[in-house]
Amino acid sequence: VNTIDDRWRTVTGEIANSKWADDKVVIFTQFVEGLKPSYIPVEFRGEDRKLHPKQDLMNSKGPEDLCDLVQWSDLIIFDYLTANLDRVVNNMFNKQWNPNMMNTPAHNLERTSNGRLIFLDNESGLFHGYRLLDKYASYHRTLLDSLCVFRNSTARAIERLHHSGSVGEELNKMFSQNEELYNHIPRLPQKNAKILQQRIADVYEQIQTCKKQYV
């Protein structure tokens, strides 16, 4: 934030109301027009949740629905890797107080007019989510265990990152090369990088289990 810079001068009132101080780093999220709530697919709502490539699934779903489920597969993997507890896991956890929670829109998830899912507010992942794994790990694991449908490119990326064992180094390198405020923002601690690498291994093992079952 720099209130005397031309980029900020027209919003000095909003900056003052937000109590942002000069020279502090803030995070902006891109505004996307026309977003709508996204509901959790029926395949993941019940205690018997399962998304497997069985013939009845292929026969009962059209191409658009199948493509949507592949997006949900990516979401479950992404949230498992980062231990993001503020999306589907939020709905699952709150079901103990509201039995209809799984029928309500997923937290921090929206849908564009063309059906693309937008993952919002991922800041609880990698840091806060890892600190709370003792409390929420079973919810993440339940979702991962329900999954046997994967996007090819996602499965290949998981396999590469699993075998390379270098996801922490890759993340920090990507961050330093693409974020101009890199030196003002905390790095991913080595402990967190090890947790992420282990969670990549978990997803890899789930993919291998599914291959043995269906390929």
UniProtKB/TrEMBL annotation:
Top-level taxon in the UniProt lineage: Eukaryota
InterPro entries assigned: FJX1/FJ
GO terms under cellular component: extracellular space
BP GO terms, sorted: cell-cell signaling
PANTHER family, sorted: FOUR-JOINTED BOX PROTEIN 1
Protein name: Protein four-jointed
